[in-house]
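question for whoever is on the cluster today: can someone run the full assembly for these? three chains, 1213 residues total. i dont have access anymore since they changed the login thing
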Amino acid sequence: MTRFSRIVNGPFFARCCVAGLAFFAWSALGISSAVAGDKVEQPIEFPHDIHAGKMGINCMYCHTYARRSMVSGIPPLQKCIGCHQNIPSVRDHPRIQKLFEYWEKKEPIPFKKVHDLPEFVRFNHERHIQRFYFWQKRPVQEVCGFCHGDVKTFTVAEKVKPLTMGWCISCHQKDHLINATGSETGHGPHDCWDCHK
Amino acid sequence: MGWSGASLTVAGCGFTSIESGVETVESYVQPQDFVVPGIGIYYATTCTQCGGGCGMHGRVREGRVLKMEGNPETPNRGRLCGLGQALVQHHYNPDRLKEPLLRQGGTLQPTTWNNAMALLAEKTKNAGDKFALLTGPLSGHLKVLAQNYVESLGSRNHFIYDPLATKVNRSVSERMYGVAMPCYHIDQAQLVVSFGADFLDTWVSPVHFSSQYADFRKANDSKARGVLVQIEPKMTVTGANADRWIPVRPGTEGALALGLANALLQDPAYAKNVPASVAASVRGYDKTHVGQITGINSEVFDRLLALLRERTPSLVLSGPSAEGHVHGAQNAAAIMLLNFVLGNVGKTITAPARVPFPQMAPADGDTVALNAFNDGLMHGRFETVFMHDVNPVYTAPAFLQLKDNLKKAGFKVLFTHYRDETAEESDLVLPLDSALEDWGTHIAAYQPEGVTITLQQPLMERLYPDGTRSFGGLLLELLKQHRPEEYKQWPDYYSYLQSALTKNKSAFKDPAADDGLFWYQTLSHGVLNVAAPQEQHLSATPGIVNVNLPAASAVDQEFPFQLVPSVRSGFRDGRHANLPWMQETADTMTTIVWDSWVEIHPKTAERLGIREGDILEIASKTGSVKTQAYLFPGLDPDTVAVPLGQGHEAMGRYAKGVGVNPFKLLAPSFENATGELAYYATRVKISKTGDRVTVVKDEGWRPGVLSTQQGRKIVATMAADKVKLFREE
Amino acid sequence: MSITYMLRDWTHYRSTHPSADINKDHPEGYKWAMAIDLDACTGCNACVVACYAENNLPVVGKEKFAHGFAMHWMRIERYWNDEDIETPQHGAQFMPMLCQQCEAAPCETVCPVGATNHTPDGLNSQVYNRCIGSRYCSVNCPYKVRYFNFYNYPEQEHAWPDPLPMQLNPDLTVRTKGVMEKCTFCVQRLYEAKSKARTDGRLVKDGEVTTACAQSCPTGAITFGNLLDPYSKVAKMWRQQRMDLYKDVQDKDRDGNPENIRGYRVLEELRAYPSIIYLERVRDAQA
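^ ran it for u. tokens below:
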């Protein structure tokens, strides 16, 4: 055997190939680009802990589109001002000052997207909120928290769940109640086209 | 809302992993309560792509208009043709003008709007008849402002030009029926005989007529399926859908019509429908004589006659191929006469309601206007010329020498969206808002149901807010330059329209008591229906009883073919050649894309040794074009057809250098009664250049082989008398 | 995990198809189907342009069109009649051809990576991010309605120079090089309608959703809807035309179609069980 063929047929080479392929597969999964727990720098460090935690405001008060659209949406600036124009006690706090600066200029705050799925994935908030919050009547923070983490302990949002397809499917393959009142169970949709149109 | 989201949708290789903190989320500041990201909002507006004036709904997502649909509340009944949908490509066209251009030192240079408006004021001071305005067809408030402006300058020179005008038809209709554009009830006819009126694709109001055609074709217990006969020298889309397509020698349509009238009038049941003089005047047109003139054989004639006798009520239409001759009006009169003979008048042809606002009523345009404009230019009568919604340097036949004559005008201003051929000859080129960025009111020339005014409203913020302006807005500004007291109350075109309509809201059906609510509802529905419009009636007897058709003249052997400059629905007069969807969509009849062609009958091609793809020179006495040959059986054998709309020398990347422009070839022939350019009267000769190309088309697999189904059941056909009827539910 | 479920559902579907019960095959209550009346179709191409507008179809330009790379998911084929080819006295014949969403699609069985499957609501799906570009599916398609992205059209000069990308439909992927695409029955519209209806606790009503082609057609030649809804226009048309989705030879055709009912499916004998019926064009014999 030539030296070359000994290497190619040897166990070390095989292990390298496997490792190489595994690395390729792992990086292709895309998890590597977003390490869980990294806090994203936002123009205003919005304190979810005060709003969702201390105040106990329902997530959907601000993220109002979640129950009726595919996207949950960053609330329009008007939503923040709606309350804060009537809260003199914090009016001159630095973050609130910044908020009103944007309002004066009628400019949206350029928040960075934290849970940014690839272009070819279309996640539908409405269906999940409708099922888990409205039909199954689970508490809102549990429903939103399943994917977004325990937001009432964060200031700005943090990506703490993998959000990979495998992770989504792991829930979709579990048996759930398929209607609010009965006991019939089934699993979530496996139609590729639901998310990948 | 600007550019939100658009960049996120085009996936490159970078967006294939889950990311965090990379993209920015565009959020709203103060949205209206019906705005939900991820859900489209629909706004109503009016299509401006042709004279049909269909109402549209535009789907808007995150502040961008994406797709146009039909408005269910307008006569197009929620449907929209391909050209209408391609309006978004005019709006987002990469070659749209974004700033005013002024000719300095021979070339067009960017300038400011302030400078432009100052120039406009200066050049129109004390203008009088030295000022001329050339526009396309106008209606609604834009027409009011345009006419008022011309008047304010003391000028009488407003030329309304439509290269594809139906002037001959309207003029003859007015004389025959008493109204210029009657209502045609195709859905109520059992037989439609169309002499070249391509009502399914390019004639008058194609989407509305198509919708009627669907009902026309349905058979049920109470009515039979309608039969369509099309008589023309070149098969149009409507012709392709006919039960019987009859090729006719160009120009002889009138003789055929009189021949049919003659045969029908032998029967007293028909003779009583018209004055006795009619029967006398058509006596010379017996079947043999008609056959000699038209080339239509006895059997075809008899079958058509039988249909006319049996399928009632019927409807006979006159189209451009019959009207585009020196004796076009006579042809049209002969054809329209048949409707009187058959008793169709008042049944399948009725009068439209009268448009109550004469200032806003549609001014349709003609080619006489171009002639008059050209004449004025030639004699150096115009110092300052404004042009809008026209491209005369492209559409004028070469014999008019319009491009040279235009040079004689002192200062030429073009209000346009693109740097087209006319822009290249202008001194000041002013960029306009697209139709999807502008306000307006429209009264379509064809009013099938009462009288409707359709609204045009912006579907998004201007793409180039510092660059483009509304033409209505500009007219208002120009009017303020000369009549400040009268117009200063309206800061912009929007406020002018709103106040004009709201003040007159009692003219419309069920206006809301509250003005604000009235305006909101008007914009929401996109259409206003005139309340109790005045009925009109068609004349009971034909206005013309003596049709004078010329004797057949000797065929010029040097120019042995008749040229049909055909209209394609996606191109019209060439203004839509820069729409990629229109270039890429296969032509219905030939499936050719991205080019021009000359249609030749296969027998003629065989005789001349022409194969598909040969580059031929098509030459008339006044011009020539070179284009690829295409074998097309839907032709009178001595006719060739070249489509209009291509052959641009400017107007952007999708139009420039594509195909050839047969407008240039047209002969200096004018219709006798109206003075209109006779489009179908050009004789040409064909010569081979020796070059050959592969025709780029969607059909077939071998060039020159006519696509048939090869015995397979792909498009199956069934005879009408065998079809099982179903009652429509 | 997901491929296991997908293949399990799909192979079960194919091996039991055609079953005796259309409802069992489509447990969600939807089976999308279409009926196209060839006597109403004028060949105007409004549907073709509507599809370009709705589905982010690229304009490929003359050269690529010449090479057969046109991306029109819906096309109008124009035929002449063999018998009167010299003077086509009965006009031309137009066939709007689009993906037939076959129940037993020949394309589904040959994809090496399972990028094309059958959805629970009766559509033939094409998953772009799974597709590796083998193009076997388009080889197998008898209707030749699958179109491959041989070029990266978002970067080609013709397709979307600025600001044309603003026209793109955000509900739908813009495809890049190497993936197969085809008509989806405007699945993005169906999905939105189904979601809205589900929130209201009901199924989609007839007329609530339609495809871009059906919506634009000036003559209303295209009818689209849920075949499982007995009151939908499309179900009525299939019933009137005595068309059974699961038969490769219809009962009426076994008897030679004595009642002259117009409904038929193209290339039905290939047993792909298409979800689109066509109504025969009619020509008056006396004309």
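summary bc i know u wont read the tokens: The longest helix of chain C spans residues 2-16. Chain C touches chain B through 86 residues (CB under 8 Å).
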